[in-house]
Design a protein that fits this description.
heterodimer; A: alpha/beta; 5-stranded parallel β-sheet; B: alpha/beta; 8 helices; 7 strands
């Protein structure tokens, strides 16, 4: 029988099936960070249980860590306590690898997994973080879980779950200059909505995906959750295998050859059945900017902010009305006339080397507009930061007036000191524009790294295609 | 985990779609290393006019009189009626912890985000999916009737309104079994420990790179 990639990954990991189809699914890789794990480690200890397979754990501190003055440690005592609790838990339980605060390889958990080869094709990957979907770019069945499930995986190495439905997002054509994976996925969410993928695993396929780098594929899968899908997937090809060769935790020698041969089978069969199919033409997508408080509230740079009366559904109409009020926007305003105060280039969506290169190419030889209060680049990891510095990207950003920060989740959700003030408007390469996401009262517009860079230079949203 | 068999309670309405987990419990409260105590900060940014930070005494906060849960008629509500895609966004289990700590035992809406839906069942909170027409009907009834209550019956799989109408809903049999019994699912899974070990031993031979 022809199988989808999701079904192949699922079938490989079934340990036991209950009468109603609820399945005990074996977990290969457990990524752990400081925010969603303390209660799980505590629960394990209180129940007198041991971690089932310590070598599945890769941990780091990322959400609470500051992005300046690392020598000073963590100023906020409760942030510090959470990070120290992770230190203590990993010390007592163990892990395959731990990249603590200030380690050279510390970084956002979804950046460090792949760059260290700790994320390998065919794995089931979990983490107490919804953006675990990122790892699906490597044909992993990767999903975010809650803290009770973190404890369940620690204790049993398994997850209790029912099989999802499958959705194929077929992206034909090739994106134009200045259009990236971020624009493709924002455009998709605009079409299917933030609940469009609920109950589904989304596989991204088609010519645009086959030509895309691993960084771009990670951006796509990262935001599958913003389309409601717990996991995103991309089939293995030569690009996947080339990315992984030589990474610290990737296999070597004969084992590498065996692994790579198996990985090449991690593709959907030609006549596999998907429960739903969505077709997108990459060539028709322009640079995207969100204007509201949900990622589905998105438009192209050359469009206008919509009006509530454009929406027939009363619940939707009220949602738009509330969003415009929160965002301080007037209906029908051209997107390109929206002025911004702050720029954030970072997050598990867009903080990898390719993202920084793309933004630096726009910024090079230019200066921040006068109205920009703060523009910051937060690399996804210590390794990304070092790579960028070796290429001189830090100098390009600094010369333009950007701050070049230490790695972490930073202002994507502002658990550390990096936040928007009430009313401040930010062009952000992160993944969520919810009310208060980047700071209470803050106004987030989601964009690609190139578009964030263009907004930094113009002081308002600008069509990056006219700058390139 | 607290059992859920049948619950009758006062209904509060939150008439918005796509209520995200950042709204349910804002990020500054995620720094806690405990599972409890999140109730006073449920919907913090909507519920209070002042900015909330961990450790603040709720009694000193300034409630937002326009927010629905601050209205006298909804005080002590234990069932939340909402719209589609409730709980979207982050995987933070602090969201169901906050709802439960506030006093909600059941949520009714047209759809819930996958991770949030799953997290509810681990905490004795029952999310009930009903067709949009039924949700509309319950909204109308609730808004028209101060003191409006519903009975959510997991054993019988229906929601009963005071007019005597019982609307059926569906829940996976295994989830229902766990919630009806209040079972610790780690304990249930460990009954299969031998199978897990067998699976692992086989995989170590077939795909040794997964165990490096």
């Amino acid at each position: 029988m022809a199988l989808t990639l999701y079904e192949k990954l699922w079938n490989e990991h079934v340990v036991h099936v209950e009468d109603d189809g609820t399945t005990l699914l074996y977990i290969d890789r457990h990524l752990v960070h400081e925010v969603t794990s303390p209660q799980a480690f505590e629960g394990l200890k209180l129940a007198g249980r041991k971690a089932w397979r310590v070598s599945s754990i890769v941990a780091t501190a990322d959400h609470n860590t500051p992005t300046t003055d690392w020598a000073q440690g963590i100023a906020d005592p409760i942030s510090r306590q959470q990070v120290e609790t992770l230190d203590a838990n990993i010390r007592s339980v163990g892990a395959l690898a731990y990249f603590p605060f200030r380690d050279a390889r510390q970084g956002i958990v979804h950046v460090i997994g792949p760059e260290n080869g700790a994320t390998l094709p065919g794995m089931t990957v979990v983490c107490g973080d919804s953006h675990t979907s990122t790892h699906g770019a490597f044909a992993c069945l990767a999903q975010g879980i809650g803290t009770s499930e973190v404890e369940h995986v620690l204790a049993t190495q398994c997850l209790l779950q029912k099989k999802s439905k499958t959705m194929l997002v077929h992206v034909a054509g090739q994106p134009g200059r200045g259009v990236s994976a971020k624009d493709i996925v924002l455009s998709l969410i605009g079409v299917i909505g933030t609940a469009g993928g609920t109950g589904h695993a989304i596989e991204f396929g088609g010519p645009a995906i086959r030509a895309m780098s691993m960084e771009g594929r990670m951006t796509l899968c990262n935001m599958a959750i913003e389309a409601g899908a717990r996991c995103g997937l991309v089939a293995v090809d030569q690009i996947t295998i080339d990315y992984l060769r030589g990474r610290p935790f990737a296999p070597r020698g004969d084992v590498w050859d065996r692994a790579a041969a198996h990985w090449r089978s991690l593709v959907s069969d030609a006549d596999a059945h998907f429960d739903r199919r969505v077709d997108i033409d990459a060539a028709r997508i322009g640079p995207q900017v969100t204007w509201g408080t949900s990622p589905e509230m998105v438009a192209s740079i050359n469009e206008r902010v919509p009006a509530p009366e454009d929406f027939a559904d009363p619940v939707k109409r009220e949602g738009v009305e509330r969003a415009l009020q929160y965002m301080g926007l007037v209906a029908r305003t051209p997107i390109a006339e929206i002025r911004v105060d702050k720029i954030f280039i970072g997050s598990c969506t867009n903080s990898r080397i390719e993202d920084l290169r793309a933004a630096a190419a726009i910024v090079k030889g230019r200066r921040l507009a006068d109205n920009i209060r703060l523009a910051m680049v937060v690399p996804g990891s210590g390794l990304v930061k070092a790579q960028a510095e070796s290429e001189g990207l830090d100098k390009i950003f600094r010369a333009a007036g950007f701050e070049w920060r230490e790695p972490g989740c930073s202002m994507c959700l502002g658990m550390n000191a990096d936040r928007l003030e009430p009313g401040e408007r930010c062009a952000s390469t992160s993944n969520r524009n919810f009310e208060g996401r980047q700071g209470a009262g803050g106004r987030t517009h989601l964009v690609s790294p190139q578009m964030a860079a263009a907004a930094a230079i113009a002081g308002r949203f600008a069509d990056v295609r006219e700058i390139l | 985990m607290e059992k859920f068999i049948r619950h009758e309670g006062l209904v509060a309405v939150l008439d918005r779609a796509n209520v995200d987990t950042d709204a349910i419990i804002p990020k500054q409260f995620l720094k806690s290393i405990k599972r409890s105590g999140f109730g006073p900060n449920l919907f913090d940014e909507w519920r209070y006019l002042d900015h909330g930070e961990p450790g603040m005494d709720p009694a000193t906060r300034v409630p937002n009189p326009d927010f629905v849960l601050n209205q006298a008629r909804y005080r002590s509500a234990s069932i939340l009626l909402t719209r589609e895609n409730f709980g979207c966004g982050s995987s933070r289990e602090h969201a169901p912890w906050a709802l439960q700590d506030y006093g909600f035992r059941a949520l009714i809406g047209t759809s819930f985000a996958d991770i949030f839906y799953n997290n509810c069942f681990k905490n004795g909170v029952l999310p009930v999916r009903l067709p949009a027409a039924e949700v509309d009907r319950l909204f109308a009834l609730c808004q028209a009737t101060p003191g409006f209550t519903l009975t959510v019956d997991l054993d019988g799989l229906y929601v009963l309104s005071p007019d005597g109408k019982a609307v059926p809903f569906e829940v996976d049999a295994f989830r229902r079994y766990c919630l009806l019994g209040g079972y610790d699912d780690i304990g249930l899974t460990l009954r299969h420990a031998d199978k897990i070990r067998e699976f692992e031993a086989r995989r170590r031979i077939e795909q040794p790179w997964l165990f490096a």
